[in-house]
Design goal:
The chain is built from 5 helices and 9 strands. By secondary structure, it is α/β, with parallel strands linked by helices. The protein has a single domain, classed as 3-Layer(aba) Sandwich (Rossmann fold). The strands form 2 sheets. A 7-stranded mixed sheet has the order 5-4-3-6-7-9-8, with helices on both faces. The protein has a two-stranded antiparallel ribbon with strand order 1-2. The longest helix has 13 residues. The protein is globular. The relative contact order is 0.15. It binds S-adenosylmethionine (SAM). S-adenosylmethionine binds next to helix 2.
């Protein structure tokens, strides 16, 4: 299999570059690399999510599921000074970049960039934010989402951005059927922004 951004350990040369982004009115310069999702710019889906949803208003424990080089995790930690953000990915190069980017943003003390199995079992999340890895296929996607939705704290919310043509609407129905009432809170540039709740 070729070396895709979702490889656990990309074999391609680790060629770095920088990406400038504006998130919630602040400027960031992120380091990205070959073998990592959307290395040339802030992904359009991610940008739609961050433009359509305000940052959390209260501190808490957040999860950025599928963090990539960490733009969502870094922005959450920057906007919410008391928050702890778990930045989870299966791609080790992505996790290295997230550590670097969190340092550059001055939030490395509160961004924990780890593999999924390295999140301690007793951690619950007040909020989950994700531009999820749709390409892993529906069975894996559903398994991944259920694994983390089950760890939403009571009253917690999960925010997702999913391409309409990648099944955004059916994913919304599926989450509701699984017991996480899910509504569409935004739609732009072919993406659906979804909010699921744990009652
Ligand atoms: C669509 S990308 C989003 C990356 C980043 N959040 C962004 O906005 O640029 C999805 C990410 O999920 C990661 N991923 C794939 N399978 C995963 C899994 N089972 N658990 C956690 N992350 C996974 C991929 O490596 C990829 O970095």
């Amino acid at each position: 299999m070729g070396d895709h951004f979702f490889s656990a350990e990309p074999q391609s040369a680790d060629v770095r570059r920088t990406v400038e982004a504006q998130i919630w009115g602040r400027s960031y310069v992120f380091t990205t690399a070959t073998g990592v999702f959307s290395r040339d710019r802030l992904d359009i889906g991610t940008s739609v999510l961050l433009r359509s949803v305000e940052p959390p208003s209260a501190a808490g424990t957040f999860l950025d599921l599928g963090t990539g080089y960490g733009p969502i995790a870094c922005a959450l930690a920057t906007e919410v000074p008391e928050a702890t953000v778990w930045a989870v990915d299966v791609n080790t190069r992505a996790l290295e970049l997230t550590v670097e980017n969190a340092k550059a943003a001055g939030v490395s003390d509160r961004v924990r960039a780890v593999l999924p199995d390295d999140v301690p079992e007793d951690v619950l999340f007040d909020e989950i934010w994700s531009n999820p890895a749709i390409h892993i296929g529906k069975p894996e996607l559903h398994k991944m989402l259920l694994r983390w939705l089950e760890r939403l704290a009571p009253g917690g919310t999960a925010r997702f951005v999913v391409g309409k043509n990648l099944g955004g609407d059916s994913l919304q129905r599926w989450m509701t059927e699984q017991g996480y009432p899910c509504e569409r809170t935004g739609s732009a540039k072919g993406f659906r922004v979804l909010r699921a709740r744990r009652d």
